[in-house]
Amino acid sequence: MDDHDGLREERITSERVYDGAILDLDVDTVRLPNGSDSVREIVRHRGAVVVFPMHRDRSVVLVNQFRYATGEVLLEFPAGKLDPGESPRECAARELEEETGWSAGALHALGSFYTTPGFSDEELHVFVATHLEPAEDCVADPDEAIEIVTLTLDELLAAARDGGIKDGKTLTTLAMARLQGWIRFRRGSPAYSPSTGQ
Q1: Sign of torsion over alpha carbons 85, 91, 95, 98
Q2: Which of 81, 93, 131, 180 has its CA 20 to 30 A from that of 14?
């Protein structure tokens, strides 16, 4: 028996109220552990990837992109949604090339996380991209206007610390990379962990 069975909610009914190109919206009635009923509005998403691209000289590739929902240009790691039947690794390689013009010699999976589990099932798969080379025959996504930004690790961490990065997936990816040894602090300066071989 699951140790958390006493926390689970049971779906009673589900109604699809919106079918979109990027996401769907379900309105579910659920039975709570205390026996009462409640309503859950759930955004259904097929999942996406986020990529932390690092050059051999320790510089990092990000993008500036206008996000209509916030009305702001945000500094972010390259990212994008999975195509039907596409694996997260395939998606990471494709999105990196489309958004930055760089191809990864190696993609290192760091794990995954749910972006906003209070109302969405979107899961983001995180990769570090190394051994970057210019991509051949790269075709940018026609519905995205992107500015490529290259920062040192010091500049990246300063932007995260000082509010220059407000994008949640970028901040989470940076934390995951730090926790898994891809970035470490030495005498006040960030550096790759020797354990990564980079």
Answers
A1: negative
A2: 81
| Domains (range + CATH), the chain | 5-44 (no CATH), 48-187 (3.90.79.10)
DSSP letters of 135-197?
A: PTT----TT--EEEEEE-HHHHHHHHHHTS---HHHHHHHHHHHHTTSSEEETTEEE--GGGT
The residue written with tokens 């080379």 in the block is 133
The structure tokens listed for 4 are: 């958390």
**C-beta separation of 72 from 66 below 8 A:** yes
Q: What is the pLDDT of residues 121-158, one digit of tens each?
A: 999 999 999 999 999 876 666 777 999 999 999 999 99
Query: Could you read off the pLDDT of 64-99 as tens digits, one per residue?
Result: 999 999 999 999 999 999 999 999 999 999 999 999
How many Cβ atoms from other residues are within 10 Å of residue 142's Cβ? 6
Q: Indicate the pTM of the whole model.
A: 0.89
